[in-house]
């Protein structure tokens, strides 16, 4: 009778059997124990499926949240993102916390990092299981035609603490967190990503353990300031910490640009005016219709696209440019001047202008290429690096422009050509303006009609906005003045525009989104580093840190994993085995990026989970 009262008092619906000896959940209640292979000596634990977990968000704040320990990580992350109101949860995953990958510093306490917010105490209308209590407040209603939410972020949640940017840490606290990272150190960090096809318990995560919630796949689809306040803020925070802790390399000029944007965002965040995300500017309906038409023309209606090309002649650019070629064998040719003609989606170059009426020396087809900026506005360096796909890798071509105008036009043309578009497309002019605006933002000279404010009157701790290593190179007063000068170019941006600019500048860095792993190719006697980005893999020499070969995912006609010997074949080359992590981690990155490339707005944000696991789960 007492047992009956005990069972009746508690809700056991969330409990399930955990078989610790086999490291698995016993969830199929219609199966017999004999079918599972459970014998009389088995040790089973009757435990809740939802348990508390400590999550460090991209803004470095730690929250305590009840999550599912029995669902696969892919589903658990989707639940977490739904509670936090982060759209596109497929871009997010969980990372194991690595304590001091370089054990040169003793761990010091940091009040900012040690603070924990309990989600049960926050007024987010959540229930203990981590699911939304009311779908109206937690899950948006979507337009069936364009897949966009019908209500703004502020209307789903009201006041959400995760839409506000965190204040910058004092320089002393920032210095405690900073560690210079080599490529080998980065491989140690990247080995900690959890397997999306297994549950938390199956990967050794226990109740109240601490994990990092991070944007794993750096392809941020359909970012919309009106509906993605939390997502954009957390993306900005991840980018900000990435810059401050120098997890990604950037030039001194870029560091000042990032510092000026941080300072501007900090000023707007701490202002007395309330933040109203519902007032973000609407997308013009005509512009949206033109964009949809452009996508339709690009997507497959060949007759209409051909007809449009016949009616609108494709413009071309001609210019005397300096170019340098770097073939796959790393034999660097010197820079040399040629006469360039950019037409459609290809560049032809000639010995001089007079010979441009004949056959070109070579024609470079840019469709599917990678366009990497190589710019330093202060030094008047305006370069474009093109990574051109070839049969077994990629060739590098460096182009130098004389000034900002040349660079903006040619880079915009290259970006469109890499997507199969010509300069006749309506987005060409906006792309040029976007690049020019970005260059102006990187310039340290004030814009015409603007004057730098009085540095003496500024209440700014400049060292808070740059990495500790960079702060040591300049005196505080000098650094404050340079940040204030750079701030003149972004002073008129709204809060959300400034965050978007920061994210876009982060995306433009050459090393953006590359995850590094130590591998060994079959037949090789030394370890090498493999970099994985959203569209390519890079083979890097560990001693020199220089790229050896690049493979694009688009050229990978065959891709699988030999699970018996844990090797990953790449194209027709020798397969490699992973040294710094299990090959499943690398396999999931490649498959995940291929999966994300299949997304489109007409999917109404419904994910094909079966396809994701087919591409990332392997055949273990």
From TrEMBL:
One Pfam family linked to the record: FERM_M
SMART domains: B41, PH
Transmembrane segments: none
Domain Band 4.1: 47-517
Annotated CDD domains: FERM_B-lobe
Record domain PH: where: 314-421
Any one GO BP annotation for this protein: cell-matrix adhesion
GO cellular component: focal adhesion
Gene3D superfamilies: Phosphatidylinositol 3-kinase Catalytic Subunit, Chain A, domain 1, Pleckstrin-homology domain (PH domain)/Phosphotyrosine-binding domain (PTB)
GO molecular function: integrin binding
Protein name: FERM domain containing kindlin 1
